[in-house]
Amino acid sequence: MRIREIQEALRADGLDGWLFFDHHRRDPLAYRVLRFEPAQSVSRRWYYLVPAQGEPAKLVHRIEPKVLDPLPGSISYYAGWQQQQFQLQELLKGTKRVAMQYSPRCAVPYVANVDAGTIELVKGAGPEVVSSADLVQYFEARWSEEAYQSHIEAGRKVDAVRAAAFQHIGDCLRAGQPVGEYSVQQLIRTAFEREGLFTDHGPIVGVNANASNPHYEPAAESHSPIREGDLVLIDLWAKLDRPGSVYYDVTWMGYCGTAAPEAMSKVFAVVRGARDAAVERVKSAVAKDEPLAGYMVDDACRAHIRDHGYADYFFHRTGHSIGEEVHGNGANMDNYETHDERKVIPGTCFSVEPGIYLPEFGVRSEVNVYRGEKHAEVTGAIQREIIPLL
Q1: Boundary residue ending a domain (140, 169, 184)
Q2: How many CB atoms lie within 10 A of CB 72?
Q3: What is the CATH number of the domain that holds 43?
Q4: Contact 357/345 with Cβ under 8 angstroms?
Q5: pLDDT tens for residues 358-387?
Q6: CB proximity list for 330: less than 8 A, separation 6 or greater
Q7: Residue pLDDT, tens place only, 46-95
Q8: How many Å apart are CA 132 and CA 109, to the nearest integer?
Q9: What is the model's pLDDT at position 134?
């Protein structure tokens, strides 16, 4: 149990409590943060209040009285809806500011797991409801030393697989053998399995216009051949196939020729500059011990692309949190899809992956950035130029 740790975090943030709520297991964060499995089915609503001081308190339905048994604290019961509302008011009595898995205007959808009606119900009981977004990332997104080392090891393996995939494309082209997006994707998946890596889906292998679709994935029934003169994007992510491991997620570009054309190299240079501007924004803030939020990193990256005239061709956030899931529950580098005000806290990792997606070809460059207590670092190899594959 991490009740004491939760209470310390609540006091640090000036909150009176954290109210966990679930119905039909719709909020997986509640179970992960509290580190428990319910003692019976969850077909009725339950509430669990962790106060900043004192003993936690449970409110459960009478037909599921044991659901919160693994958790410490006093317990009360309800059956009818009027009794539920009365008992909830009793549970929250004296609580002025309470955190819940809620995000104003759904600015951070990753934590917006509590329905609007329940938020109204809690507010009606008296307290102000604030977002648990920063609390969640404190407990969900920070890496242990073991997790960090798993990321570094996965990175070495993924980078080697990525290099081998580009080498394979070049070898096939030189030998006059057919090669395509799907066959390269499957080559990577096979290499991941051989190297003891796991991925939930992907990778992305896209040529030319396909590389302008940020979430393009080739399939057996739908893919393009890779030919001389093509620009190739490979976006691949994986983690060690063992519990507690975290992902490594990068994107690199290759050109099926001896040197990329000027038009492609020019766009890559802009993307590279935007990536480096974002990384420098993080490093500078950490070195100066300045507050840093996700939206600020996105601003630094996006400004570079805008200043070079490509703003309309960069239509996703700069980066996402990375954890045991490739899209983790920490701060995203985002002031475009959402306005992410979450702090970039020590012990967390995220991608920086600007892209410019033109009608004829797309370019993206992705690195992973780890923010430590007093430093920030790119955790793997950094692409400086488009790789010539011939």
Answers
A1: 140
A2: 12
A3: 3.40.350.10
A4: no
A5: 999 999 999 999 999 999 999 999 999 999
A6: 137, 140, 141, 142, 321, 322, 323, 342, 345, 348, 349, 350
A7: 999 999 999 999 999 999 999 999 999 999 999 999 999 999 999 999 99
A8: 12
A9: 94
Are 299 and 317 contacting, i.e. CB atoms less than 8 angstroms apart?
no
CA 194 to chain centre: 26
pTM: 0.94
CB neighbourhood size of 379 (10 A): 17
Work out the mean pLDDT of the chain and round it to a whole number: 97
**Domain count within the chain:** 2
What distance in Å separates the CA atoms of residue 190 and residue 300, rounded to the nearest whole number?
A: 37
Same domain, 191 and 306: yes
Residue 1 has pLDDT above 80, yes or no: no
Helical ranges in the chain per DSSP H:
3-12, 28-34, 81-91, 116-124, 133-140, 145-175, 181-194, 262-287, 294-307
How far is the C-alpha of 14 from the C-alpha of 98, rounded, in Å? 10
Last residue of a domain, one of 108, 140, 172: 140
| Residues 165 and 206 occupy one common structural domain | yes
Say how far apart CA 329 and CA 82 lie, in whole Å: 35
Per-residue pLDDT reduced to its tens digit, 123-164: 999 999 999 999 999 999 999 999 999 999 999 999 999 999
Prior bond of 51 cis (ω within 30°): no
Place of tokens 């969850």: 42
Could you list the residue range(s) of the whole structural domain that residue 16 is in?
A: 3-140
